[in-house]
Design a protein that fits this description.
This protein is α+β, with helices and mostly antiparallel strands and about 150 residues long. About 35% of the residues lie in helices and about 15% in strands. The chain contains four helices and four strands; from the N terminus they run αβαββααβ. Strands 1-2-4-3 form a four-stranded mixed β-sheet. The termini are far apart.
């Protein structure tokens, strides 16, 4: 839940570790805990910069919050940027296979393996948008800058 107590805990961690970016789940999402987690990160980012507080460590405000898509809703994301994950694909599939019980037990009879097919199709689609085999979409509510155009695919 996004409570004051949890905001202080997360904001204190932000102040301690001073990250440039925060990553959290994007909305829409069907899971209330995912929605609360995203709201908690948004609010903690703001709280971490406050100066008149008893929180430990120096105030810090991360440059960006980057939202990743992890929803089983069939909504089509409108990403800010796509990341080529082709080189990491086998590791991603191995991780999904290690946690199969998280995905198939509540699904409508599709059985084990459906999540691999779904994620593969999803990432191939986004990969096709940038001429790579697999890509993952990310959202940023603020502009994302590039150090040089060579980074573009």
């Amino acid at each position: 839940m996004n409570t004051l107590e949890y905001r202080v805990i997360v904001a204190s961690a932000i102040r301690q570790h001073q990250p440039r970016w925060l990553f959290t789940v994007a909305q829409p999402d069907a899971h209330p805990d995912h929605i609360h987690a995203q709201e908690l990160v948004d609010d903690a980012r703001f709280a971490a910069k406050l100066t008149k507080t008893d929180m430990p460590f120096q105030p810090h405000y991360p440059d960006k919050i980057i939202y990743f898509y992890a929803s089983h809703l069939r909504a089509h994301p409108n990403p800010s940027f796509l990341v080529d994950v082709t080189a990491q694909w086998d590791r991603k599939i191995a991780a999904l296979e290690a946690y199969q019980s998280q995905f198939w037990q509540h699904d409508k009879g599709r059985g084990p393996g459906w999540i691999i097919d779904y994620i593969t199709t999803y990432c191939r689609y986004f990969g096709s948008r940038i001429n790579v085999k697999y890509a993952e979409p990310f959202l940023c509510r603020e502009p994302v800058g590039l150090a040089h155009l060579d980074a573009l695919l």
